[in-house]
């Protein structure tokens, strides 16, 4: 190839942000099957080998510079450049790139956003690294300006970092700092502050390793004391050397570990206290500093974890009764910080960490610590316990159950100081007016009793074992404040702090109602807990009264008849009704919560509770008319009474619901389907099938609406009609459906019904004009879905008619079959 227009040099940007020459060749563009797209190809002019094969990506930002340069990024840290010998060749390739990306070739950049200044980068491709001025007192101002001007440009930052690192510039600057401090050269110290702050923003690990070494770190902190914006320098070094004391609660024999702890503390101090709060633009520039601290903490945890002697001594002293309180206080704070450091570990390393602590006996040690009187020590122990519960609640549950088994033969007093009971007691006895510690402990207890994180194995079920243990040994401790405060009709103590505590206990009990089964049910019923809880509805604190209502609402929501019978037997709606009436006409949360509870009973048709409410409290509620809830409850109750007074109605409703929509594979006609749907809606709206009456209507009156409907269908579809029997009603038979009634008009309505008789009801309310009705029959009758001539009959009333008997025999169904009604209703073709 001798075409000089396409002759190019290929450059790539290396890790040091310097351009490397990859060779000279000739560039072309074409479709590359392997890359599935148009690509740029550069072949070496020496041997024809492939120097570059780069697909023209539609989203890549290409930039044309100085008429002969094209620069772009292949990946996050892989930048490329083509330097053309002639402008014409550059223009040809640029047009091809723009064609692929759908851009106008007149633009100099194919995408709107460019992360870095590519032009500046290529300008310095062949230039050497940044040259720093001599580290002299009179050149500090120039150096400060150079650092400030380099920070905005990523490339110049890289060059500056390399220059500072390669020339050992930091140590020279720190020597100069000591000179300025001795001379009290305030201007030079201010320049050194700006320079050192800028070096932090270079965000380079190699520089941090030098700055945070033992011989340099205090001088680095000294440089950062002289902020030009402050009238007087800070005294960070004085604090670190005189005020801050490193306490070895357990002697550390490893010098490397000790040095790492010192370094981490000081660097953390620099980050938190010395460096000014970074601006939004500078925040990412300190990411390497965050990483430095993070990895230091990981190393410290790992080194301590591997030192078995250290951990053994730690836990031995924690549990030793001879250890004085001050020493134990220091040990607990160290262990707390140790656990906090562990949060930086990866999941698998954290598993190993907590397993090590468990093997060392951290839970027995915590039990000892939680029994101490020192509030600060107990607070630190609570934080440690929270780390353990969040990490592995099963480990904690297993420990407390083993502890209980070991103490089976000891006194009740000893059982009351089980670890979990200590936690409950600390929650109850929290002295904080806002109960901050109690809230934290309640959350931990909730995690421990949550069945969702309990394990089930082949040989044992953690849920069953732990809940049995909890309700036997711990629940009485948890509910003690509630029972003590609800002995009268009103709470004994109704101050804010007591109410907050009771609200926390109720929240946990409500959680138990939702997630536990027979354990909490037995406890509530045997201890009469709900009655005690409802005393709190008389509290002057609305939040506590609402907690009590929520507790009862969760119980009702279970629709458990054991609970319902307990509520009715003890008339437990009475305090709720009293709270509702005492609230008056106020439209507030109390009003809404109580109405919602009764609305739930109505909508869910909880029959036993509906009857109980209306029979006992209707007079108190009948005047409430701004909602229809209570009138709806009364209507439900009346419907229940009607069904009880006329048991045949319930059977009719059952028959209709079981058979109304029985059909074959083909579909009902629209009019019939609308008729039946309307009837179902009527039934669901709670209208009585037959109004209460001492005297039954005659069969003719009851059957008249159906006769009219069937006659209309007959007239409309006369070509499809069929006479079903001499004494049967006329109906229409279409290809997909047949509704047949067969029976004797001579049957007496007054004859006593047999025990096996069924009572087909009408699909609608006979009290409504025009709706279909049905009469009750007293002869031994059956209701079934029959198939005649391949058609499905919805309802059938067999009698002594010979023709009907013959038809039923052909179908293999006998009217004399003594199946009970529930089975008859399931027979189908």
TrEMBL record:
Basic and acidic residues bias spans: 709-724
Lineage top rank: taxon: Eukaryota
Sequence segments annotated as region (Disordered): 679-829
Biased composition (Low complexity): 736-762, 774-795
GO function terms (MF aspect): protein phosphatase activator activity
Ranges where the Serine/threonine-protein phosphatase 4 regulatory subunit 3-like central domain occurs: 143-639
GO annotation, biological process: DNA damage response
Residues making up the signal peptide according to the UniProt record: none
Pfam short name (any one): EVH1_PP4R3
Positions of the PP4R3 EVH1-like domain: 5-101
GO cellular component terms attached to this protein's record: nucleoplasm; protein phosphatase 4 complex
UniProt xrefs under Gene3D superfamilies: Pleckstrin-homology domain (PH domain)/Phosphotyrosine-binding domain (PTB)
Acidic residues: bias regions: 797-814
InterPro entries documented for this protein: ARM-type_fold, EVH1_PP4R3, P4R3-like_central_dom, PH-like_dom_sf, PP4R3-like
Record-linked PANTHER family: ATP SYNTHASE GAMMA-RELATED, SERINE_THREONINE-PROTEIN PHOSPHATASE 4 REGULATORY SUBUNIT 3A
Family per similarity comment: Belongs to the SMEK family.
Function of the protein: Regulatory subunit of serine/threonine-protein phosphatase 4.
Protein name as annotated: Serine/threonine-protein phosphatase 4 regulatory subunit 3
